[in-house]
Amino acid sequence: MGSRLRLAPALTALLLAAPARALSGVDCAAPGADCGLRDVAVQAGVLVGSAAQPGFLTGDPLYAPALAADFNSLTAENEMKWQALQPSQGHFNFAPADALVDFARQNAMAVRGHTLLWADPIRIPDYVNATTDPASLRGLLQDHITTVASHFAGEVDAWDVVNEPFEVTSGAFRSNVFLDTLGPSYVAEAFRLAHAADPGAKLFLNEVLVEFGGAKADALRVLVQDLLAQGVPLHGVGFQTHLLDPFTQIDGAAFEATLRSFADLGLSLEITEMDVALLNSDPDRLQRQRDTYETMVAACLRVAECERITFWGFTDAHTWIDGTFGPGRAPLLLDAAYARKPAWFGVRDALVAGVPEPAVGLLLAAALLAARRRAPRP
Ligand code: G3I
Prior knowledge:
Number of helices: 17
Number of strands: 9
Order of helices and strands: HHHEHHEHHEHHEHHEHEEHEHEHHH
Bound molecules: ligand G3I
Number of domains: 2
Distance between the termini: 33 Å
Shape: globular
């Protein structure tokens, strides 16, 4: 059993609203126990979440109940991105994102904000890409982040402030209008604007392909250390964890070591976008996928600072992978008919293994609940 006694503020709040079974001491490890992943996650001291899209809440009758049953956190897959929120300058469209926030509130779920700035040229509107005057671009950045972070203040407990500042496969800063016009300091500016607009939110830097160490992970750590040294309000690092089976070399110890190297900087850590795309059709691919999910979740649970595990979707019926790698890659925990795959049980088993001894864990969690307050962050 694990010994996770550190509770994130969002988890504290959710424990107050958790389904009775989560705190009733129902043994979610018992065969056939009627527990969702969220019930075990609460007992393991973490949040478990999924990316979500509002259209599926109404367009797919199985989607909403399955999302609420397994997850106590959600991330707007696209609706909180710049292109969605402010497609033309000065015109904000919050309705789709607000629908997700409303669903989360109705189902005692935390909300991760994704993402205030993904500066990749194809991910921001043309009017932003075309703004190459430094003062004007700073003005756009300030207007966007201040308007958005203020709108969701009190609803979003954590933001991916900057997503993917680096090139996909290296630690070099990815060229974009913000880097080219303002230099690398655009990252710090984004974090300062977000903190000023919502002092209560945890602010994350979110990256991909940094899970198992290497040059890109090293570059990320240097960037994080530089930001912290400047006093930038950076509170956490998100590890997207998009894995390609059988091509990604899965190494739980290496992932744990990476997590610890960032935890040592005083940061909160999260798996923010996990999926495991099956890029071949060998007969044991679902079992291997299960093992991959279990390995990565178990590594997170061994590091107290790893506070939330978010999957980039939860049913093979709705995944970005289909459009990028082609259909049939079955990357998620439920199949297209919403039946639990071996991967679901791999996550469940890793969570169960992370649950502290029943009496101690729940008593201390309850004691911590009584003491904790959600204070503005430094
Ligand atoms: O909403 C429009 C629709 O009106 C239009 O008809 C249609 C065809 O052009 O496009 C729709 O927008 C698409 C959007 O998803 C919503 O479905 C965009 O074209 C498409 O590019 C977008 O893809 C998303 C992608 O990020 C880019 O924003 C994926 O769904 C989403 O899963 C993916 O997620 C990213 C994370 O944000 C960051 N980390 C990597 C991850 C995977 O790429």
